[in-house]
Queue: 2 jobs
Job 1
Amino acid sequence: MSVFKSIAVAGAQSAIGKVIVLTLAATPGMSVLVLTRATTARPAYLPENVAHAGINYSDVDATATILSGHKVEVVISPVNGAAVLEQIPLANAAKAAGVKLFVPSEYGTITKGIPAEDVSPFLQGKMQVADHLQSIGLPSLRVFPGIFQDYVPLLVGYGASKKVNILRSLKGDTPFSTTSTDDIGGFVAHVVTRHPLSVLADKVVRIEGSRVTLNELGAVFEAPVEKVDAIPGVEGVRTAFIAQLQKFIEKGYLNTETKLADGDGSGGANALWEDHRWTPLKETLKL
Ligand SMILES: NC(=O)c1ccc[n+]([C@@H]2O[C@H](COP(=O)([O-])OP(=O)(O)OC[C@H]3O[C@@H](n4cnc5c(N)ncnc54)[C@H](OP(=O)(O)O)[C@@H]3O)[C@@H](O)[C@H]2O)c1
């Protein structure tokens, strides 16, 4: 029996969003509303029992009216990295509509307690959203799963060279978490339906499917490990982004254990999904 009876999902067409929507839609007694941009048609995958509304993110009053009309108690928004700041007006609408919990789009490098010198542009927006939620008094749940398992080949340029490429400046021995998108979405849907607000409100949680180091990926892929100046197979903005991720892994910003600040989720939260079998990395990669 879920504590919350009405949940809205924005960013419902991301891999995580789809799992969240489908899991919630299969939860007895749950009312599910999918929010898309007004320009996006009703997603074809939505089951009939899921409501859909197109919104203009910047129109706070109109979104608040829609959320109130559906008596929404939780907003989950696994939106695209480029859309992160759209969550500020969405959060304002949620607050105005009496929503009790907002689950913003984090899902990567730990943002709580990260040293100022490491706040790269792709983290800035996420931190701004977290600060905004706090400033308007809307409780949040921030979920950090390490690297999506599907992204691990890209992280080390495996697709391009059939080798595990690690930046020369790094040792490659710091453990990091990898989690499948099915497990990430499943976790979010599970916790918001099984745990009360007191367990979830203003929590930072780290979850993990498999734990590995960059060097250990050699054994995972059964491929040579090579130290390189640049990760092959990635271009443009992504070059810097992937290099940054490897550096963050080395600093422990993508695992469940490295403590950065009080309440940063270190220690892990897999236990919130009781009896779940977490998908191992090799299984997702079909290795
Ligand atoms: N840890 C990792 O390895 C990893 C890897 C990838 C992503 N991530 C993170 O996971 C989260 C989801 O990313 P993703 O790549 O999975 O997302 P994605 O598939 O690109 O997201 C698609 C969703 O984002 C929405 N969207 C796109 N542009 C938008 C805009 N301008 N305004 C509002 N909504 C917009 C779409 O909305 P409509 O439904 O309206 O079309 C769609 O539902 C992000 O926080 C990202 O940084 C982490």
Job 2
Amino acid sequence: MKLQNVILATESSDARWDLEVSDSVLQTKEATNADRGAPSSILLPPLCHPHIHLDKPYILTCNHAPSDRHPDYTDLAPQSGSFGEALASTSKAKERYTAEDLYLRGSQLLATSYQQGVTSMRAFVELDHVTGTLPLQAAIRLKQDFSHLVQVQICAFAQDPVFSTGHGEENRSTIEKALRDFDCSIDVLGSTPYVEQSEQDSVKNIDWAIRTAIEHGAHLDFHLDYNLDSSAGFLVEPVIRLLGEHQWTRRVDKSKTIVIGHCTHLTTLPSRKMLDMASSIRQQKLPLHFVGLPTSDLFMMGRPTEKQTTPHARPEAPFRQCIYTVRDWRSPAAGLLGGGLYQAGTVDDAELLFSCVSSRAREAIGLSNVGYEDLLKEGSEWRPLLLIENIKRMSVRPKPGYPDFEIPARQRVSIKDVVWDPPEVSLRSVVG
Ligand SMILES: [Zn+2]
């Protein structure tokens, strides 16, 4: 494989390079021979989805005639748009899952993600008394079928209560059995402590998840503190305490990480409490990461209830510890959204935002991370990278009777250009 006239993010954006790869090794890296006027491409680390639900995509937009194999979900379109309604509709949707439906929607998600430059992801699949292991079995097939394109980590996920309600015990035993029966295929245990009916059960859920993840040597992933209610309990605290009590760092392989997703409650914390939490995580050397999902989190934050006193709290503090997920970044305006949302307007911020959907996201979910700089040394083993192409001119419709109307296209030559103006999907591809 030859890549000509590329810009490398770690080198000057004036420099252009020709790379030659054979036998999966970068054989040569030389100053380009290409015409200086030709549009260059920029080569970046590939994207990583640290949080995506493999059984959920396209439920409301799958748009095909209902059949035994492919259910219709259109009646589940939101009416009130509330979080409670979303949870109730999700439960109804799960009752309709079929193997063919899960595989089709999952494969559409994986193919689309790959085309957008994603080469790794953590895929959540719900396991409970309704779904049984159906979503897990679809995920295992998808993981195998896409293994040459995307590295998929499967997260066995308890979206529903595992202690409260009449189904708690059954939900818990469904997950525990799946962890035993499909041990080799499951990488992560995920749970949602806030869905339990009391704070006491939420803490039991956290305790169970930590013990079970340790027992199976799995990564751990919580959906947690997804509210802006400053009077609600802050469940990150028992997570940190119980990880210590169960001696996570001593009993689990160093490569295994703990992720806390959403956690919008962080924005209600005073700085002092944030600093105390950060120092407690550092003191225990916990491999703990926060993953923000800006579009869904903003949706929640924009819906104050009577109890919420800070409905539009400023999400400033979490930014530097957070991963910003690629699902939210991929739409053209979302890079700018990140800049505005996190008041992140400098070039360094742009680079940090990009790392949140690439190298930092990989690190958060415990995937090996070869430094981009090391990867681009002659003799290094080649790993897939993201190529952003530039076009020379943009063509638009001319006035009637006028010749072609062409405008010189702006060139993306650095990470800030890619983050502040994400390219269309057709201008990105994974190479290698
Ligand atoms: Zn989620």
